[in-house]
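Bench notes, afternoon.
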Amino acid sequence: MDTTFAEATRVSTGLLTSRERQCLLWLAARMPRWLNSDHLTGLALVAMFMTGVSYWLARGHRLALLSAVAWLAVNWFGDSLDGTLARVRHRQRPRYGFYVDHVLDTFGVLFLLGGLSASGYMTPSVAAGLLIAYYVLSIELYLATYCLGTFRMSFWKFGPTELRIVLSAGTLVLLFHPIATIHGKPYLLFDIGGLVAIAGLALTTIVSLVGHIRELYVAERLSDPAGEEA
């Protein structure tokens, strides 16, 4: 196997990026030696599965929503700390880490939205639309990472951590106000939030797509036989 590999540059401009980085470095320095990045990656997947299960259980036991929030916090711990721990200990495996981390993320989001669709707090069609929108954006970002060598982790000052906080806050609101009224008509609160999220992901995909196509076109501009650029 060819061992030459240039790791993609990570770009994160989230609202909490700076503080989060300091927190993760503090945590990584204090993790027990037996704990490694693979353990944390696995923990993140299990936590997302349990988040979905908690939403499903909330259909009959509303307090299970608190469990969903707790599991989202565990997911943040595992998913955010695994790479930091590997870098602090100089145990990076950039290809393996990137591949495994993001393949498992696709399953994690499937578990999360599957649980929401079964919870009664979000209709299955909205959950399916949100899952598709997430997957389309992910595909675009991963292709751009391969072609441009830059992995963008946040847009509009929002990244995975900020989105977890928004989802957790919304979940707490569900305890008291699962229904929102617009122009006198009742709607599921998370259906409204899901539609807003779909629109945001779609807009982000379009903006990212157009920017990356333009960047690649300029980088690989062709010349015609007469020597003029096309």
